[in-house]
């Protein structure tokens, strides 16, 4: 078990290191000059040079990489050239939108999907069939289109929720939560559909219908059998998928934030690339890749805990 | 049930492909023809899906957009297959360090969301259909590599594969003769699913402006442009989204149906 | 046990309901203002960045210069209460306002003028408009409240130039931190900036002039047209001075709660051509392009009909404007004939490089459609802003591009050597040199008109339209600027009518 964990941890670190080099190299060969972006078309050559010096852009490439990665390793994420404030502060402010959104969507998806999946598995025929048909459609709907439809209905037609924007947490959690309702639903529904299908399949695979037959024969309550025996046994494929889904959700928030103009990590990334805020882009890409890798690692650990055989097989 | 799904899914998929083919030779209006006088016209007999801000016929643009969706996702999955399947076969055939290296590499590639890859490639060489193909291809490759590796691994431990090795056949020959034919059906199913994912991803990337560039019609960009007019011409956000959903739904049903049919056959055999 | 958990969950539900019902926020009290802006300023120091958004927030609200521009685009006194110009046009004597302090307590006097201009002209200056200060030879301080500026050569645009946001007065103590915490002499002072969301200003209690009627101003960054519309409708925003969704203006025009004010800006949308490349170096080809494009249709489709056709690099709101909008009427037959004369074969193709703003994306597509009707294949290429700046602007590596020049009265760019569109006309340069050296206003006016005519005749770029300023605000709000003679959202005179 510990050998398996150590090896996964090693992969994790290697992956992050690799990611840091890729993003740094890409940004180096990216056309566009940060100083020119800040000072605009009328800037004179000497002004641009002065600003490049101020930003440290005239240092050799390898030195800049070492500066950056050394800083990250010691907890210093650098300064944003566009905002001129510390990147850690900036990212923390944006995480306050993105992470609640992703977690909220994951929660909502799970709360919808597992009961639906288990229910569908415990029924046969028309009920199961129509639930499955509905989830099939749910899977096919792009989340950003769903977002547009939700805006159309709940923000334009009836004005229950804002069409976009985020008032910030300090103005009362009410307004902030309200701004996150439509984006959360838009993100959650397609993921819930996928998760419900997998839950149903997993519960069936562990022989739910056999369990139920036995239970009925023994005169036990179906619900108890369902939740005490069938569902726990079906957990591994479900948690594995949830790990994958969380990565999707993180990427998905980038587009959904775009639709609702939420000031989250996704919009920050687009903005940072546009403004050639190089260190900020590097930090953000590392953060995204790190989160995804970390979540997959946690899912592996969780699965190993649920079923220790797995760790043995893999190592 | 399973057959019905294959039938329905296949039907929808054929519908989308046919639309794209018809659009090659005929659309009600030229999909790029600008008609300022009739801009933002609501759906009517003349324009069943209405017209956009430039007076272009939405139905014609959706028909032409099918072409873009299909070409991009086919190319993307082809890139993914060309990279992923050989990697998976190699990993299964050689095991050991080769496998470790290839599979960890796949994990690593998979850690980059397609969107991030696309943003990076776009920054380097500009947005466009090719950028999206590469980004989705890079994202598809590790999935296909994993599926191939797992499926091939199962065959490698079968008696006939072992026997072939014992008889002195090379790894390549065994892979060609025994492994590949036996995993083709699994791969077909996975490729169908990846195609549907690719259509979704292409739409998402085009929606944020990284995909096919104007005037080439693309469903994702149509939605993006429609969002601006959500108060005055809401129908612009309706139809392109439906087109995406139909295309994805068809491929998903087809893939799921095929998988179930295969499982059934396997179970019967067992 | 059971009842208590039931009770708990029902209060939880009730709590959820009240919080969902508590928005939209209460109507703004009559001494505060929430304004929408489309782009977030990259920093708040107008002397260290070119973005218009910096000026939207800070111009005259926080920072002030010796002179300033009023709503009509006229140069008026600001920190200089009056001035005299010597007959040779070389010496400007400014009398400075008395009793002005910066928001950090620094006293404003002539030494501040020396400091601010010296900083902008220094070798390590990062002022985006450093060339504005190029004519200055020296700044003298005969007394603390008098600044005498000597120029190297007469510069008729000097007073106007010193009204730019780039020429504001800054305090030595706080200048370095202005990017994140701006400190000026204006009626409002910086309070808080939440990146990605809002910038808050509050009334400056020590302001030297008449106190502003508003106690607090919040700039909210809402780039999305649909979200901007919703925010105005719900009352979350009181005003959006430069509304980004021309297509939804209709919705406000019939609503008595709102004022819709269509004004002018200095933005000139042009199809810039690389005149150094073939066939763009042939005037017949450029004129053919001008005849082939229906500008009114472009305004209609790209800006919902708001905006005015222009015939040169000058807007109808500028002084001494000459209406040349009819110089190249839409005439595809004439365009084809000129193309033939220029020896351009049908099927000729070139690339239009488009930066991200929607006016550029839309205009680019429309121009391409019109040119295809006269047998020119246009390839469209979208680029990020950073790439546009380095590839198109710095390296001049492009065929054509759609871009709005937002700097006011920038006829000088056509006289600059090696400017990105490579217009090289000795006649124009000579005219411009005369204009800049002219000291007599009537002579200046005549020369400005001549410059416009020269541009229209040469058509170095295809002049498309002047960007409108679409202002939408609460009908009770008074004192908002109708026009944008310079990038600014000056709210110093804004108040709520009862």
Automatic annotation (TrEMBL), chain A:
State a GO cellular component annotated for this protein. plasma membrane
- Tell me if Nucleotidyltransferase is a UniProt keyword of this record: no
- Where exactly are the transmembrane stretches of this chain? 12-30, 99-121, 133-160, 180-203, 224-242, 248-272, 284-306
ABC transmembrane type-1 domain: residues covered: 95-303
**Pfam families in the record:** BPD_transp_1 (PF00528), BPD_transp_1_N (PF19300)
Q: What is its main location?
A: membrane
InterPro entries in alphabetical order:
BPD_transp_1_N (IPR045621), MetI-like (IPR000515), MetI-like_sf (IPR035906)
Give GO terms: molecular function aspect only.
dipeptide transmembrane transporter activity
Q: What keywords were assigned to this record?
A: Cell membrane, Membrane, Transmembrane, Transmembrane helix, Transport
Compartments (UniProt record): Cell membrane
Q: How does it sit in the membrane?
A: Multi-pass membrane protein
Task: Please report which protein family the annotation says this sequence is part of.
Answer: Belongs to the binding-protein-dependent transport system permease family.
Descriptive protein name: ABC transporter permease
